[in-house]
Amino acid sequence: MHLQIEPLLPTHWPAVRAIYEQGIATGQATFTTESPSWEEWDRSRLVAMADAGLVVGWAALSPVSSRCVYAGVAEVSIYIAAGDRGRGVGRQLLAALVAESEVHGLWTLQAGIFAENQASVRLHGALGFRVVGRRERIGCLAGIWRDTLLLERRSQRVGVA
């Protein structure tokens, strides 16, 4: 599938919110149980669009800390529309996010993924992320304590001595 990847605009919000809610509904994507408002959401994010302008996924980089020593470290989020999973959307979107992160001087990307979400673990692994640990019982979702895997990717271009 050929994608057009661009910054997220307010006009994309209804489709992006629907994709996020699909991820929430799986119980395998996030501890979040409700999608936020646009005002809460409006940060640095990318959106993937198919040729016809249909939003099929989104990705985000969020700071992991406000401390200056971690200025080059960001957390990755990526969500793909249910009907477009397994079609290469995630790979293209995550690759674009990695490239964008390096343009902005980020040297480490990290992702927290539910241990059961092996499709996401494989996707991140294919783009240079590695599992660095397992966070046991890190959060409770629907009354069940869940583990997450902590993955990270170190840039080969930024922060290299």
What overall form do the CA principal axes indicate? globular
* SSE run: EHHEEEHEHEE
Count the E strands: 7
Tell me the domain tally. Answer: 1
CATH superfamily: Gcn5-related N-acetyltransferase (GNAT)
Beta-strand percent range = 35-45%
Rg from alpha-carbon coordinates: 15 Å
Supply the CATH class.
Alpha Beta
How would you characterize the largest beta sheet?
7 strands, mixed
Distance between the termini: 38 Å
- The tally of helices reads 4
Oligomer: single chain
Q: Enumerate the spans where pLDDT stays under 50 for 5 or more consecutive residues.
A: none
Brief digest:
This protein is of the alpha+beta class and 161 residues long. It contains four helices and seven strands, in the order βααβββαβαββ.
Describe this structure as you would to a colleague:
The structure is a single chain. The chain is of the alpha+beta class and 161 residues long. Strand 4, helix 3 and strand 5 (108-114) form a beta-alpha-beta unit. The model has no long low-confidence stretch (mean pLDDT 90). The protein has a seven-stranded mixed β-sheet with strand order 1-2-3-4-5-7-6. It is globular, with a radius of gyration of 15 Å. The protein has four helices and seven strands; from the N terminus they run E-H-H-E-E-E-H-E-H-E-E.
Task: Break the fold down into its secondary structure elements and pairings.
Blueprint: E1 3-7, H1 13-26, H2 38-41, E2 45-50, E3 55-63, E4 73-80, H3 89-103, E5 108-114, H4 118-126, E6 130-141, E7 144-154
